[in-house]
Amino acid sequence: MADLKTPLSASSSGPKKSKPSRRWPVRLASWAWVGFGLVVILFLVYPFLVSTNFLFLFGKSPSLSDLENPKVEQASEVYTSDGVLIGKYFRENRSPVALNQMSPVLIKALIATEDVRFYKHSGIDLEAVLGGAVSSLRGEKRGGSTITQQLAKNLYKIRRQQSRGGLGYIPVVSTIVAKTKEWLTAVDLEQRYTKEEILRMYLNTVEYGSSAFGIKVAAKTFFNTSPDSLKPQEAAMLVGVLNNPTAYNPKFHPAAAKRRRNVVLDRMAQAGVLPKAEIDRLKATPVELDYHVERHIDGPDTYFRGAVSQFVDAWCDSTGHDMYRDGLKIYLSIDSRMQAHAEEALHERMKALQRQFDNFWRNRDSNPWVDDEGHEIPDFILTQMKRTESYKTLANHYKNQPQRLDSALNAKRPMKVFTWKHDDNDTTLVMSPLDSLAYYKHFLQSGMMCMDPFTGQIKAWVGGLDYRFFQYDHVRQGRRQAGSTFKPFVYLTALDNGYTPCDRIRDQRVTIKYTENGQPMEWQPDNVTREYTGINMTLRHAMARSVNSVTAQLTEKVGWDNVAKYAHKVGITSPLLAVPSIGLGSGGDVSVYEMTDAYSTFMNSGFRSEPRLVTRIEDRNGNVIKQFDPAQKRAISPETAWLMTYMLRGGMEETGGTSQALWDYDLWHNDNQIGGKTGTTSNYSDGWYMGMTKDLMTGVWVGGEDRSIHFVGSQQGEGGRTALPIFGKFMEKVYKDTDLGYTYGHFPKPSVKISKKYTCISESEPRRRRSEAVDTIAADNLLEQMNNGGAVPDSLKGGR
Asked: Are strands 607-609 and 614-618 parallel, antiparallel or unpaired?
């Protein structure tokens, strides 16, 4: 009987083993299919995720609007009123041109080098991509980007910071995302543009080095030619540069640039662009450049450029435009021909005047910086040097080292400096910083502005001798005492308050009593000749002869505070002191800009026109964005304005008028009429002339950089001999240039009835040549004193 305790399996050799599950292969296969499905889904969805910037992971991609209206940075251009391009504003200097304005060999060279299958793909060249991947695995550097992909990257700045998403900061992943966006954008571009349009955009977009963006600027920068005139070797050079605009820049790396150019030529040979024999010949040619880099603000150096920049910048800030990017076309009121005439007239006169000035002081064996008594100011140059930024930099560098600082100030080196002795107005001299400062202090300076008084358009603006060497603008920046050119504001105040040009005041010595700071004061103004005719002069005759005694009496009658008020009404914007001598020009410093504006009010029937440099702004396609119309407001009555013009004609029409030196100029055809006023300040520091014709108003100033630098006599230093000749020469040139359309003739007749008497018997004789009086000097030899005796108050010194 079997043992009941023995297990049934006791006869087996060992424990029972489990068999492997037959379900594992099925599971693996299922996982593989799921993974494959996820990859397929991800592959299909990934472009959508990238283009929509899913969860902000991928960064911004170009929108439909961006694709259809790509915003390429383009230089804004500045044109004169007669259509001459005189400058640009840019960060990326770019001026797009049409494809048919580019050399065909340039386009063929680009395709042969950068994208040989350009016409066969739709934005992505899979063969090039695979070839690039294989090359990368081999450790070789070979790009696979098509021209369209490169355009996408350059046009929309896909890899810039603002285009990054959350994944853009992960190495490798960021590159994959950026490349995907380039591919997607390239395909979109191919769908929206023809191949020719893509080529045009590409060649107008890419950088060629030396701050040249676009083929037009590149051709000019490196070869001084246009894109349609590029030679094959030049086209090959520019295409080669695209690979690395810095490393292959032909100006700075000519050997590397030549090697790269020859690679492009070889590829042109492979593509059959030119015969191999021709390619071999071109490869042997040296790199020949005609190099010219356009600066951040390019064009001729002009004094009005700063005013243009300031105005357009302010307008752009208020409208959201960018003049360094938007390709604006900025049109000025400046006429390039009148600007040239103004510069020539000023240079011709200042060159001759400088020769007189140098001879004058050479004969005195002295430097021209002198005090009130005519003595040379000691240590003048060192004192002036200590005010300069260069001195402050040196002093900081050699702090507590006076000997080394002194050595630096006296160290000589070659310097390019301004000179009147050469046609290009520059030369190289060996000088120290102190020598250079002393050299420049010897030069007389000048500023000149001409405007249309009826529209406010500025036609010419010359702020100095040469902007390369003298950046200070003597039209708007510079302010000096106006001397007798301020007297018309006294007569304006009188005419607008009941006086007529025929009213009379006696030329006699007078004492004017007033109060300053609570103290009783007296002022006895001198005529410049120290003589008083005793004649009961008409106001017109007195203003024409610039008689101090009459002007001072009239100022007292109308009130010096009213004179300041009227000056401000017609265009003077600088602060003015309401002092008895304000009519002689000692009430404050003014600029050529505001004086020309103020005098223009007389010619414009009493309307003040704000001076305008910019007339309109267009977008890059030539559509007018903004038209700047004349901004005018009534300042004085039309009757008073016409009478002031009539008064200013007295400088030529009254005997002894201070403008009569103009008889020496060829200005007197067809009974032409000219009005104007001379002005000279104390010690002959400033010479002025304000000249008007029936069409134009012109202001001119001449003087030293510092008030202590000047002539010491009326025969050389008065405004009628320094500033007036510049106006005379300028108007000669304007009248002779018949294309400008300015003609001789009479001033306009009054637009309203003139109720005041203005034609009267004066002390004048029949008009004759060269009978002008010596110009009076602002506040010259003033005798002010307190009743108990005292010093001359500062408010009446004038001209210093």
From this structure: unpaired
